[in-house]
Predict the structure.
Amino acid sequence: MKLKIAKLPGDGIGPEVVEQAVKVVDAVCRKFGHEAEFAFGFVGACAIDHCGNPFPEETFKTCMESQAVLFGAVGDPKYDNDPTAKVRPEQGLLAMRKQLGLYANLRPVETFSSLVHKSPLKKELVDGADFLCVRELTGGMYFGEKGRLDNGDTAYDTNIYHRYEVERILKLSFEYARLRRKHLTVVDKANVLESSRLWRQVAQEMALQYPDVETDYMYVDNAAMKLITGPKFFDVLVTENTFGDILTDEASCVSGSMGLLASASVGEHTSVFEPIHGSYPQAAGKNIANPVATILSAAMMFEYAFGMMEEGRAIRAAVQASIDAGIVTEDLADGGKAYSTSEVGDWIAAQI
Ligand code: IPM
Ligand code: MN
């Protein structure tokens, strides 16, 4: 089968880690008799440098004409400390999510037994933790009306949610819960926020249609604590955009390294597969970043975009083998030999 994939490496370590995932995709295609065709697109700071727009129309077209998007990261330090910058790399990612209608971000958190000691949390707390964070991705404060008043001395961001946005993300979450351990936790701040009260109201209504799913509700501050004191409590966790952004970074500590966590953004048009770690500019160009999160994002791409479960499993098995064999980058090396980004990518591709 021919697979049309848009390749958007973006900024920082994005290009290095995406290159490893491309090697792995090619290896899978050789093994299973597929043919991958990659179409490159600019996004983020490199797109601003290229044409002044962090998500150029051309890149949007490339995404729309592809069956899946493999994405690296966006961000550049030259924008981070300049609050007055008019265009920012992050706007490219937000525009991509909005224009492709990617309202759900799926961030699975799993632990590798041989790596539980890398977690800052106690081994017995994290060993066996396995949950799916579903983050709403195109609504809430990130997209609500924002602005300045009083000559710039007052600033606001509006946290707005419509019923249809809440319903579609909850539907997906209930369905994922059904496929897993049938436990859904809806995370909100319904004791304070009106938008959260809408979420909770809609969730309570919908829960009646999913009697086989045990649904519970948790305030976000409590959830932040529960994620580190008892992560095994969770099966599927669903929450709004801002809370999800924060909680999924926190949740990455469970698995020991941010360099391990993959994600899929799905919705109306082409799905995007990306590591959650961001552009890590300090490591850019040094060939030291962990490519595993992006490689596992490619596994999710086979599973979610192409329905190719066996191909996804082959990638996961090869990643597991690399970790067991100690073929890991410095974030996981533990005083042992640290392999480079490309060495890890080569090893995993060869293993496949
Ligand atoms: C993420 C990132 C993005 C977000 C940034 C880069 C806009 O942190 O994917 O979690 O906040 O959504
Ligand atoms: Mn984030």
About this structure: The chain has two domains: 1-111+262-352, 120-255. Residues 74-75, 90, 93-94, 245, 278 surround 3-isopropylmalic acid (ligand 1) (CB under 6 Å).
